[in-house]
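Model it.
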Amino acid sequence: MSKGNSFTWYGRSAICAFLLLNLYPGLACAQAKPKSNASPAQSAKPAAPGAKPATVAGEVYTGYLIDRSCAAAMKMENKGLDNGLKNHTRHCSLEPSCSESGYSLYSGGKWFDLDPKGNEMARKYFQASKKEAGHIFKITGVFKRNELRVATISENK
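Modeled.
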C-alpha cells in the first residue's frame, strides 16, 4: 500500500453520486416523472358527483330562534321549555324591547347567542316570515367567545 491519497475508484464514485444527488435532486428523478404542460388547476381531480363542497363557514345548528330577553326568562324558569319555544310568536321577536336584545338559538339542548350580523339576519327573516309561532331555523356558523358567528341562516318551513 502506498502512502498519500488512498481513495479508491469506489470511494470517488460514491462521493460524486452523493454530491450530484444533493446538489441536483431533480436530475435523478427526471426520467421517473414526465413533465406535463397542464397547469395545476387543470390537472386537479374534479369533485365526485354528490360530494358536498368544503364549507369554511363552520358547523350547522338547527333549532328554535327567539329573542334573548324571552330566552333569558325561559332559562330561569326551565319548565315547559319545548312548549314555550313552540308557542313563542313572531310578533314578540319583532317587538322593539325584545329584538334590541338580540336573538338566541336553542339547539341540541344548548343556548347559542347570535353575533350582531346574525341578529340582523334573523330580524330580516322574522319580518319576512309567514309563520306566526315556533320558528325553527338552520344556521351555519362558528361558535366562538360565547356567541354564534353566523355565516348563513334559513328558516325551516
